[in-house]
What does this fold into?
Amino acid sequence: MIAGLRALTSRGRSFLASGLAAMVCAFALGEHDLLRVSVLIITLPLFAALVVARTRYRLSCARRLDPARVEVGSDSTVTLRLENVTRLPTGLLLIEDTVPYAVGTRPRFVLDRVESRGIREIDYKVRSDLRGRFPIGPLSIRITDPFGLVELTRAFTTTDTLMVLPEVVKLPHVRLSGEWTGGGDSRATNVAAAGDDDIGPREYRQGDDLRRVHWRSTARYGELMVRREEQQWQSRGALLLDTRRHAHRGEGPRSSFEVAVSAAASIGVQLAREGLGLRLVTDQGAHHLPDVGAGHALLDALAVVRQSTSRSLETGVTALRQGGGDGLIVAVLGDLDAEDAQALARLRHGGVTGVAVMLDVRSWQQAPAHHSGGDESFEVARAVLAGSGWRVVRLPAGASLAAVWQEAARSARFTGPGETMTAGDAA
It folds into this structure.
């Protein structure tokens, strides 16, 4: 009963206050008819509170997101399934699901009546222009009486997660060299020679399993020969994303940082589909990516990546150097000074291929059409990387990565400011 009184709405409190006032006036004026009216007015909200408080609805709730992983700007449909598991029909139900402001306003629905063992399904859509992992739920239900005098709130505890991924741009196929690495008997071969390791015979070594003896070759060569271990080779590479706050310009979904995240996602998905074993590195260090589908784990990691307060790429460069075995390094970079450019340049050696997607962040400070493209720090960093054999791709504001990605296939060469690759050149 006390819970019911606490659940009185403004209308219910007004009824109760009016009834008490009418009762005081009835005693003061000696009006018996007014006293009867006051008793009726007071009894109505009290009776409604008693009924609502003693009502024991048992409802089960299930939520489904379709799909649960979407790109920024795409819709996901949330389906709520409510079931009345008691033998009593429900009264009026006001339903409200909890969603973050980034994916829209809180959806509210009214269910007039749910019969015994009845099921109701409700759909609504959510959409976000921001990357991230967003909780959907819990669901709350408000139970009211037919007169709107009492409102009692009940809430479920279960929540679901909506993963909003960065935008992925389909890129043209670009042949990049690298090294294939694995654990078999043969040495690493170039990425162009994809396939299984040679499973031909070799001479017997101390500790080899005798079940691997190849008797035909043994008779042919006159010495004990065993089969090589069959090994599926996988190409390995690293993706470096510059998340330093001071290295980017602009705000919101079209800032240089968000464009950099989208570029990293697009490149990572493209390389993962081509069979590259990829690891993600930022200026904060290496990120562990579980082997979940082609690029799925990478997209999940990039969905929640945030800008850092670091001033240098030193930690990221160290993580790349310690990883070892990377035949390909793709770096998506913001504003770069000469010192960081030299540190990256030293990673390029031997059979390692380096591709640098350099965002011309100065173009985010003004309209791209009026940007001269001759920023000195950008040209110095580009010259350092290109001089050490990196393939440099310039990405200004308003340009599509797909339009300039073909430049990643070209051999590194130093060009003057007027020859820097842009979207217009690629087209």
Notes: Residues 363 and 397 are 6 Å apart (CA to CA).
